[in-house]
Design goal:
six-stranded mixed sheet, alpha/beta, Ap4A_hydrolase, Calcineurin-like_PHP, Ser/Thr protein phosphatase family protein, 11 helices, binds manganese (II) ion, 16 strands, globular, phosphatase activity, four-stranded mixed sheet, Purple Acid Phosphatase, chain A, domain 2
Length: 329
Amino acid sequence: MNSGYDIIGDIHGCANTLCLLLERLGYEERMSAEGWPLFSHPQGRKVVFLGDIVDRGPRIRESLHVVKNMVDAGCAHCVMGNHEYDALGYTTKAPKISGKTWVREHTPRNNRLIAETLNQFASYPEEWRMFLDWFQTLPVFLELSGFRAVHACWDQQLIDEFVTTYDGNTVDASFVRDSAITGTFAARFMDRVTRGTDLSLPDGRKILGRDGLERGFFRTKFWADSPETLEDVVFQPDPLPEDIGVQTLTREQKLALVSYSSEQIPVFIGHYWLDGEPRPLKDNLACLDYSAVKYGRLTCYRYDGETVLSADKFAWEQVTQDPVPGRFD
Ligand SMILES: [Mn+2]
């Protein structure tokens, strides 16, 4: 008897924190045959992981084992994050016509982003291969009873188009290969659901992100109600320069935005590096990425069928610089 879902945001290798959070939520641990912990809930609650298990953090391999064990045992679902998609792309040869060698090119920037993951798997190549095969099976969007989950953006139009053409919610290897070709449906779809929407900065301007990367675009909300200015749609830790924020959205920009109206069932997303006290962003939308790997909070929403989300249903584990009573050393 399933009695609700605990939806958990981006883990990025914070495996000790993940175990603490699962315990806080009442999950009980036993050992699986392979010696990795398997968490399950005595009342049959299940977890929905919002993707981005890998990259950046200290215990990526351990995080993957904990998450996959739960999924394999039927105790959790996990949707694909942009970092799992990137790992697939990084290890998949691109079609010739794309002009690329790999679906995700091995540029210095991309190399740096995946380095931590490859490092931690350096002595376990067959395990890494196994997890890559597993990433390929992850749903890219998920609709369960009463709510939806996706890593970055629920774009109903693209999702409908996907379901009509491909039937289901997973992508196969050839879809990933096609996504290397600019302008294909596969490219637009993967980018939209795992990375969300963005707009270019006007006049070729660039801003330096908190993560040290320079970008010519900014992330936007897909749930803004009747936005008028760039400031109304920006959604990222780095604010827009003031003179840009006040600019009015053009017709093209408005058309490019995706909307998620208040009448729709609740949707949960990760991806956006929020900070501060977790709370719903709208009655029917919550982001559960509170920057755990940057000493933020590994965050969960305890969902029990409600149509209006509530601030008191968040739970989290604060990540500190002090070593946690670790399961994994
Ligand atoms: Mn992330």
